[in-house]
Amino acid sequence: MKIKALGVAALILLAACGKHPSPPPSQGVTDAMLQAAPEGEWLSYGRDYNEQRFSPLTQITDKNVTQVGLAWSADLDTARGQEATPLMHDGVLYISTAWSMVKAYDAKTGGLKWAYDPKVPRETLIRACCDAVNRGVALYGDKVYVGTLDGRLVALDQKSGNVVWSKTVVPNQQDYSITGAPRVAKGKVFIGSGGAEYKARGYIAAYDAQSGDELWKFHTVPGNPADGFENSAMEKAAKSWTGDWWKLGGGGTVWDSITYDPATNLVLFGTGNAEPWNPAAAGREGDSLYTSSIVAVDADTGAYAWHFQETPEDRWDFDSAAQITIADLNIGGQQRHVALHAPKNGFFYTLDAKTGAFISAGPFVPQNWAKGIDAKTGRAEINPAARYEKSGAIAPVAPTFFGAHSWQPMSHSPATGLIYIPANIAVFPYLAAKNWKADAIGWQSALDFSVLDKPAMQQAGAAATPAPSGALIAWDPVAQKQVWQVALPAPLNGGTLATAGNLVFQGTTLGDFVAYSADKGAKLWSFPVQSGVGAAPMSYAIDGIQYVAVLTGQGGASQNISRLLVFRLGGTGKLPPPPPMIARVLDPPPYTGTPAQLEHGSELYGRYCFACHGLSAVSQVGNNPDLRHSAALDDAKAFGIVVIDGALKHNGMVSFASALKPEDAEAIRQYVIKRANDDKARGGT
Ligand code: CA
């Protein structure tokens, strides 16, 4: 009897302990260091808890940046998109690469200390919207944390790279993936997932930094009301949804930004689009909370604190997932503790970081989805013409699902007071898919992505779909206005780094690494890095020398040379000469399809192929191989072996047998052959 009673008491004690995280580390990387990083270190994705990406180092300045050269470089063993920001602690540089691999280098010499490969199954690509990318690791105590594309959270030993623990943290491995960098605070690791183009229900969770045990989880969208709600925030959110949204998960995934604010003990995070994009496909009306929002929860319990929805009734993939920066700004003569945000929807928001109260907003790129922003509440008034599913017609909307600004990090200089945004300028013809049904494979957006092939678009010509471009925008978050801008010919340029040397560093899609003066935007220095850059640079110092590091390599059809590059004043390092650009010549077999086959192939391509291989069979930055150049086009059987039998699944091209029949594969092949021949006739490559 006594033993039994003891047993119950012990169980109760254990259960109670299970709710308490391990104490924060007192050695290695601590909470105090993450709150105010040592000058020469870069300890978390956005450098420290504020996520400002501002280096206080002043050795490299606007006066001497012309003398910057390469200190050392390291070739990476993957040529896919590199999105990580390196971290530096105690003389060691930590990076993650595509396929969620982690590497540690001597930050002074570039010597490789260790490498870790989680061996992500390549088939995982089919449920990752945007290549096999990973945006970085977290350092805490004596460990390194990484989320893997297939949904594991892994703790590694900082010294050896050995696995300390590894847990699958996503609800399932069909719809969820992890590409974002974990964040850490108070003995916990915070991470969410991607998947709002599939059938994911968004969430963020906290895991014990020592054991990996889940401590709390906050869903961003309500589940099936019949199952009951987890908390009052979900019950309240459910009132902003109609239809049977939960069948497709609802979206709202927390795939990038997570900011711990020690001043308020809140975790702020940005949520992704509602799923499916096209609301009519799920009978969805209303705001669909808490999608396309910033949400704040208590760091200890995960309890809801506040939300601010930037895009009500999202139907354009206007994720609010981009980085959230915390700052103390003088606004109207008052010091305000604010959250700064530049989401995909094209407006820059300044919010009260403690309450989420709207302070101000302004459009940083051309946009037409909103008629304006309510000056009191910050709520956007939606332009009815942008509700493409209501009209059933093609609606050209700016910005687009690329995002006016997405994961490519922005930076904030307290010296200039400005935010440096890697922005995209684009318009896309949104068109609701007709007779759409959910499927077991691929994107579930319910948009017609064969829209560019429609006769109306073909007749409208190139003017209807101007090529997207980019811009580096210096933005005043108090006045909500642009201070300077550098126009960039291509979109999806790299993230930015601001420094106390009055500099802003940014890599470009076209393969340059550039320094501008932070106050005026004067181009002061550039270095040809031989490959597109999407990732953000960072800066650190060892033995009195300041370094700037950046990863190169963008996924897609362009030349990808994935490297870690490290610069310093007087650096004399040289990159090996780039391999000669292979001239791409379109050489398709003759088109032998029927009009019906062509139309069917176009629709199927838009449904199943575009997300990885590009709109209208043209591969762009971030895409996979351009199918117009595929040797498999020559042979119907070979094409079918890839599409139906999954012959290239080791490369991520899985079998589509669950959705496509052999005659469907042949229609897609004929469509791609037609596209290739048309482009060849136009002199395209
Ligand atoms: Ca999205």
Task: Assign the CATH superfamily of the domain at 595-681.
Answer: Cytochrome c-like domain
Structural class: alpha+beta
Tell me the number of helical segments per DSSP (H or I, 4 or more residues long).
8
Low-pLDDT sequence parts: 1-18
The percent range for helix content is 10-25%
* The CATH top-level class label of the domain at 595-681: Mainly Alpha
Q: What name does CATH use for the topology of the domain at 595-681?
A: Cytochrome Bc1 Complex, Chain D, domain 2
Strand proportion: 25-35%
CATH architecture of the domain at 595-681: Orthogonal Bundle
User: What is the strand arrangement across the widest sheet?
Assistant: 1-31-32-33-34
Gap between N and C termini: 82 Å
pLDDT average, as an integer? 94
Please tell me how large the radius of gyration is: 24 Å
Principal-axes shape call: globular
DSSP summary, beta strand count:
37
Largest sheet: 5 strands, mixed
Bound molecules: calcium ion
Description:
There is one protein chain. With 685 residues, this protein is α+β, with helices and mostly antiparallel strands. It has a domain at 595-681: Cytochrome Bc1 Complex, Chain D, domain 2 (Orthogonal Bundle). Helix content is 13%, strand content 29%. It has a five-stranded mixed sheet with strand order 1-31-32-33-34, with no helix packed on it. Strands 2-37-36-35 form a four-stranded antiparallel sheet, with no helix packed on it. It has a four-stranded antiparallel sheet with strand order 3-4-5-6, with no helix packed on it. The longest helix is centred in the C-terminal third of the chain and has 20 residues, at 662-681. Bound molecules: calcium ion. Calcium ion binds at residues 196-197, 272-273, 317, 319.
